[in-house]
Amino acid sequence: MHNIRRSALANGTVTNTDGVALPKGNNILQMEIDCTLEAAATAIAANCFADSPNPGTGISENRAEVLLTGVPDKLTAIEKGVSSWWKQIRTVTPTISTTVTYDASHAAIIDFVHMAWAPTYKLGCGINKCTNFYAVVCQYSPSDLAYGNQIYEIGNPCTNCPAGFNTCTDYLCVADHQQRKFLDLHNTYRSSLANGEVVKVNGNKLPKGSNILKMEIDCDLEAEATAIAAACFADSPNPGTGISESREQVPLDGTPDKLTAIEKVDLPVVRITRCGKRVLSSIVRQT
């Protein structure tokens, strides 16, 4: 829900309360899940907003109390909560002008600003069913808002992506890092499998698949895989019931960095790291 809206903003299809379309953005980053932020947001939601800790330096936070009436489940509550933050741009005044400059008058639409701030790319959210409402919380980082700064830079999408964000997807600058590389590679292979494009050793293609799921990040699996890689396979713990695991030793010769090492992992058909629906592994350099 966040990236769909940021994509629309980058492409110039978001309007303010005056009905005027905001300009396109050239440096808006695609958001991704951050496990630390997710844990913090989940803890806040679990207390039904009884506690209000400061999210910390460089972190912003949005909260919504979504009444239970007419809301059958948490997914619906998430949609209502996130939508309530974003729609501030077209329902609350004073609005953002076409210079997209952030100032003190925008306190009433701060939730929108948190969601739209171009350099922000880490996201962690939590939800909990309380007595009369669903508590919906999202935290964002880096979120160094400053009066007088532009919420984003004006220009054609992805024409001024910062270093380390060299891919453009749906008008957003996408980070080049390990977590993204692992996830994208797995889903690329699984997509090929579902479409009947994977070839066996004998040259025949495997049939198309009707029930193959798109993988997503799981913070617990990521932590476990990171610990195993950090030990350079010195320990071999059982991954646990319902969890599978793949390992690969990639020689350092001809492998300049970790992203290259991830790409070199041999996946001849579809080799699933960890779990059938969720994925994350990690890699360390052994000297």
Automatic annotation (TrEMBL):
Coiled-coil intervals: none
Domain SCP, residue spans: 1-152
Organism of provenance: Oesophagostomum dentatum (Nodular worm)
Pfam family, one: CAP
SMART domains, alphabetized: SCP
Domain of life: Eukaryota
Protein's name according to its UniProt entry: SCP-like protein
